[in-house]
């Protein structure tokens, strides 16, 4: 067994108001996704998303089912999206090989039985994934940055000049409910997702990377009138409930992966919160 998945429960916003730093981090912060020759993750009861990391080093790793799923195989009732945040790697899907370069994505639909992750031949393998419940089988598809729907927002003057790559969204690849993408901040910019927003129809998870070891990101969460913050390091993730904002500011620029699951596939379905309305 090389797969270790932790369960995290849902939280009422009234309860979160009383959390101290350690309690807040215990419920929402994910600090150790990557371990050599292991698949690690968190099964959150917020839309039952699984947030995880895969690091094959000395051997290939198969996608194993876990006790939380009570299924014969991992994707029996699920879909999965994988984004490579390390060296070029190969993923086998029911016998067919897909080579993923850095910042390329792979969608694998419900019903696929055999998924095998191979160590990279050119460097360290770091594969980040999100998995959500699925009701329909959609085909496996590789999506590179050139295939993504790309939007550039913000400005250097406002410290939020950034490019959004919508990799696994319904305008690029059909999915049941999973959506994933990546946002790269330009040098000199540190703010992400500002103005902030909420979307009661979907939860979200953020994964921060391309961050130097001596730098950090302050991730903001909570209801707009009752915000909290969690300090994040490189290769760490955070769970954002549907009622919470999800924004951040770093001590340098960085990249993050956003993943969503829930009621709909409308990327623009969000309730904007003006910076001056945050408390």
From TrEMBL:
Zn(2+) binds at residues 197, 199, 204, 246. It holds the Pfam family KduI. Gene3D superfamilies: Jelly Rolls, pectin degrading enzyme 5-keto 4- deoxyuronate isomerase, domain 1. Its cofactor is Zn(2+). One of its GO terms (molecular function) is 4-deoxy-L-threo-5-hexosulose-uronate ketol-isomerase activity. Pathway: Glycan metabolism; pectin degradation; 2-dehydro-3-deoxy-D-gluconate from pectin: step 4/5. One of its GO terms (biological process) is D-galacturonate catabolic process. Binds 1 zinc ion per subunit. It catalyses: 5-dehydro-4-deoxy-D-glucuronate = 3-deoxy-D-glycero-2,5-hexodiulosonate. It is an enzyme of class 5 (isomerase). Its EC number is 5.3.1.17. It comes from the Bacteria. Keywords: Isomerase, Metal-binding, Zinc. Catalyzes the isomerization of 5-dehydro-4-deoxy-D-glucuronate to 3-deoxy-D-glycero-2,5-hexodiulosonate. Belongs to the KduI family. This is 4-deoxy-L-threo-5-hexosulose-uronate ketol-isomerase. It comes from Belliella baltica (strain DSM 15883 / CIP 108006 / LMG 21964 / BA134).
């Amino acid at each position: 067994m090389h797969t270790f998945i932790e369960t995290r429960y849902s939280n009422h916003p009234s309860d979160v108001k009383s959390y101290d730093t350690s309690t807040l981090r215990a419920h929402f912060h994910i600090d150790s996704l990557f371990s050599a020759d292991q698949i690690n993750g968190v099964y959150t009861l917020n839309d039952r998303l699984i947030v995880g990391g895969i690091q094959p080093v000395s051997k290939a790793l198969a996608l194993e089912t876990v006790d939380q799923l009570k299924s014969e195989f991992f994707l029996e009732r699920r879909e999965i999206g994988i984004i490579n945040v390390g060296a070029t790697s190969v993923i086998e899907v029911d016998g067919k090989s897909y080579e993923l370069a850095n910042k390329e994505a792979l969608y694998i639909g419900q019903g696929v039985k055999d998924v095998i992750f191979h160590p990279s031949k050119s460097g360290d393998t770091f594969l980040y994934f999100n998995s959500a419940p699925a009701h329909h089988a959609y085909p496996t598809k590789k999506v590179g940055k050139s295939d993504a729907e790309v939007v550039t927002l913000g400005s250097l003057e406002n410290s939020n000049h950034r490019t959004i790559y919508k990799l696994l969204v319904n305008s690029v690849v059909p999915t049941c409910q999973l959506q994933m993408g990546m946002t790269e901040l330009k040098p000199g910019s540190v703010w992400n997702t500002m103005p902030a927003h909420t979307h009661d129809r979907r939860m979200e998870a953020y994964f921060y990377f391309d961050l130097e070891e001596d730098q950090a990101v302050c991730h903001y969460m909570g209801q707009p009138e009752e915000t909290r913050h969690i300090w994040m390091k490189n290769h760490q993730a955070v769970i954002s409930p549907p009622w919470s904002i999800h924004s951040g500011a770093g001590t340098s620029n960085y990249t993050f992966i956003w993943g969503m699951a829930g009621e709909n596939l409308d990327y623009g379905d969000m309730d904007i919160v003006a910076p001056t309305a945050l408390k």
